[in-house]
Write a sequence for this structure.
């Protein structure tokens, strides 16, 4: 657990100017084993807050403790070796190979080279990099790969606490999403106490177990779960910062109850025109592959031969039947037939549902039941609209 | 040309002497400039004094410095130590700024990451900053090396033997070939120093020459980044 107790950081202003406050009387707890995201516009002191934890920056007043131990009482370098640190652009050492980069902290802790490198190799595997990358220099890696190495380096000495300063913001959106997903997978495995800084509210909501919104001048505006933040921003600043589509986004945190599914006729990929036309009940017909996984929709009227993959309409998203309202509703809204395709945990088709059905279920009082695996419901207003 | 063949032994001896007079101060000067430059970056307020002060040393005329040395050091007028110390002063004068620039070329995020990993100040300087400073440092060193080779030739005016001797002697005897030997000798020596430093740099910075094409990225200026 990282605990901030009345922490303030003030910088002396230029002569004749008032001192500027980067962080103002922050009291905050980052619980053990969870991801706490600090989010806010530039100038809100989020990076300063992060760097005060490993004493890269010294607070003007207040105290920070790790599992009850005041960090001010610890040796700086030893404190830092016990805290994983990941920054934007990874900050790898360009003159060291990937393997030696990852072995940095174990070496500083006095491990012998062979043991440190063995450990580093394990870490590369953990973050999904092939062993062959170990011998390369950072400049020979893509931005996303460098960032993985950055995470591996931070994890190498198995620190209980990790500080992450916009680690995914310098890579393209596709890679970012991939890194975020893998980061969450890793965290489920490792259960580190993580303080994560970002300026991207979507990232905060996706990754955080709890999110602290900071306003310019370093004041904590709201500390809440992502769902609560979307459902009930404390003031205009937070509401603005959290942004548009709050109601819709909040649905991502509400599990859909078991919905009455429509008995959807389907056809196998490769089936002939006759079979397709016989099965269909309206303009669109759902196509499954041999494993029962939905692959797309066809219009049987337009078919001239057996159903080929290139004839499929792939606009519709597919949702897990036990997924969130957001995923289920999106599946319905995006399907050309207007019927959202739902699958089970192994991706096999279970049925379809229309947007009307989803909305009806959502609007029923006390319908906010949780279905498997969806953390923390927004509670309160069952329509999921935020005010 | 027969003169050259007849004096080949002398020329070789003078060249070696010239190389030592230029080379040893280069190494000693680097050893002095490194901590000075590091201190200048560590204490920004002291930087103008350290960098400006050491730079001023370079403005002392070399002949004057060679002549002053015995007075300062209490050495004999023909003692080689005079040349060594004077050349070390010039090397330091040129290299302190190079060291400051070289350490400044280390990307801030890299230095920051090193601190965050738990390096102490000295460890960071030796294990991270110094290796990354090598490319910029090497270019400073090459300038200092060439400058040393050229300034050492002035020492012939105070009678200390090296390739500069052929310049003064050839001039007095109106013997262009001898002057030519002095000039060509100095140029070759300077080229040799330059080449040696380039090779050394290359060996110390395999990372800067790693093939980056594999990932389809242009070779990114690692130092400038």
């Amino acid at each position: 657990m990282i605990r901030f107790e009345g922490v303030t950081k003030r910088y002396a202003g230029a002569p004749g100017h008032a001192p500027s406050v980067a962080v103002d009387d922050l009291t905050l707890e980052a619980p053990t084993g969870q991801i706490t995201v600090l989010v806010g516009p530039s100038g809100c002191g989020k990076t300063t807050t992060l760097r005060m934890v490993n004493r890269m920056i010294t607070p003007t007043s207040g105290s920070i403790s790790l599992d009850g131990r005041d960090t001010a009482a610890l040796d700086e370098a030893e404190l830092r070796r016990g805290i994983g640190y990941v920054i934007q652009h990874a900050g790898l050492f360009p003159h060291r190979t990937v393997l030696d980069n990852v072995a940095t902290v174990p070496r500083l802790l006095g491990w012998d080279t062979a043991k440190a490198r063995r450990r580093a190799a394990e870490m590369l595997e953990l973050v999904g990099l092939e062993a062959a990358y170990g011998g390369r220099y950072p400049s020979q890696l893509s931005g996303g790969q460098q960032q993985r190495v950055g995470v591996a380096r931070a994890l190498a000495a198995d620190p209980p606490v990790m500080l992450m300063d916009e680690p995914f913001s310098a890579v393209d959106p596709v890679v970012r999403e991939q890194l975020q997903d893998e980061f969450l997978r890793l965290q489920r495995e490792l259960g580190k106490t993580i303080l994560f800084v970002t300026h991207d509210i979507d990232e905060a909501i996706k990754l955080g177990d709890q999110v602290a919104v900071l306003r310019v001048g370093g004041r904590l505006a709201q500390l809440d779960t992502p769902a609560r933040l979307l459902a009930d921003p404390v003031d205009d600043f937070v509401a603005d910062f959290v942004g548009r589509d709050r109601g819709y986004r909040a649905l991502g945190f509400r599990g859909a109850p078991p919905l009455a599914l429509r008995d959807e006729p389907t056809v196998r990929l490769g089936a002939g025109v006759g079979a397709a036309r016989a099965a269909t009940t309206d303009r669109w017909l759902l196509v499954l592959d041999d494993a029962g996984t939905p692959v797309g929709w066809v219009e049987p009227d337009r078919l001239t031969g057996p159903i080929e993959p290139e004839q499929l309409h792939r606009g519709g998203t597919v949702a897990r039947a036990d997924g969130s309202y957001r995923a289920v509703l999106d599946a319905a809204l995006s399907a050309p037939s207007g019927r959202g395709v739902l699958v089970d945990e192994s991706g096999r088709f279970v049925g379809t549902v229309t947007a009307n059905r989803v909305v009806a279920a959502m609007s029923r009082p006390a319908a906010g039941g949780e279905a498997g695996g969806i953390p923390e419901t927004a509670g309160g207003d069952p329509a999921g609209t935020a005010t | 040309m027969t003169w050259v063949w007849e004096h080949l032994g002398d020329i070789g001896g003078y060249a070696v002497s010239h190389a030592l007079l230029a080379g040893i101060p280069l190494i000693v000067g680097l050893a002095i400039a490194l901590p000075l430059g590091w201190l200048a970056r560590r204490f920004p307020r002291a930087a103008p004094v350290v960098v400006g002060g050491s730079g001023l040393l370079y403005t002392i005329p070399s002949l004057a410095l060679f002549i002053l040395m015995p007075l300062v050091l209490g050495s004999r007028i023909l003692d080689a130590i005079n040349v060594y110390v004077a050349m070390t002063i010039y090397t330091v004068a040129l290299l302190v700024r190079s060291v400051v620039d070289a350490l400044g070329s280390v990307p801030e995020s890299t230095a920051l990451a090193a601190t965050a990993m738990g390096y102490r100040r000295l460890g960071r300087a030796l294990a991270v900053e110094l290796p990354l400073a090598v490319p910029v440092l090497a270019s400073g060193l090459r300038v200092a090396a060439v400058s040393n080779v050229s300034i050492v030739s002035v020492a012939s005016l105070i009678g200390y033997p090296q390739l500069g001797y052929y310049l003064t002697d050839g001039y007095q005897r109106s013997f262009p070939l001898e002057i030519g030997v002095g000039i060509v000798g100095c140029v070759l020596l300077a080229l040799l120093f330059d080449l040696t430093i380039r090779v050394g740099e290359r060996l110390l910075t395999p990372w800067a020459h790693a093939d980056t094409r594999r990932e389809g990225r242009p070779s990114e200026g690692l130092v400038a980044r």
